[in-house]
Amino acid sequence: MLFLYLTAEYKSKEHGLNQVVLWDKIVKRGDNTILDLRQANTKYYFWDYGNGLKGNDNVTLTLSWNVIPNAGTLPKIKGSGSHVIHFPDQYTGGRV
């Protein structure tokens, strides 16, 4: 069994490191392991209580996973790549 999760990491004026889980999924043995997430929404809201996201040029997305064993230790494995996104200085007032 696998526990997959996507995190976003960023710095803000109030905190040196912020980590947010945006999405997660448990994949059981025998499940369809092809995940097509091109049209998926985030599972959890992504917001900052201050202004840490607005205009932030370094929000790093990372996919990690845990192999959930039948017995023994729980290893944490981080994906070998990451993706940096840039947030705009202004947000829209409605849907685009």
Automatic annotation (TrEMBL):
The keyword Isomerase does not apply. GO terms for biological process: protein targeting to ER; signal peptide processing. The keyword ATP-binding does not apply. Signal peptide: none annotated. It comes from the Eukaryota. Its main location: endoplasmic reticulum. It holds the Pfam family SPC22. It is found in: Endoplasmic reticulum membrane. InterPro entries: SPC3. Keywords: Endoplasmic reticulum, Membrane, Signal-anchor, Transmembrane, Transmembrane helix. Essential component of the signal peptidase complex (SPC) which catalyzes the cleavage of N-terminal signal sequences from nascent proteins as they are translocated into the lumen of the endoplasmic reticulum. Essential for the SPC catalytic activity, possibly by stabilizing and positioning the active center of the complex close to the lumenal surface. This is Signal peptidase complex subunit 3. It comes from Plakobranchus ocellatus.
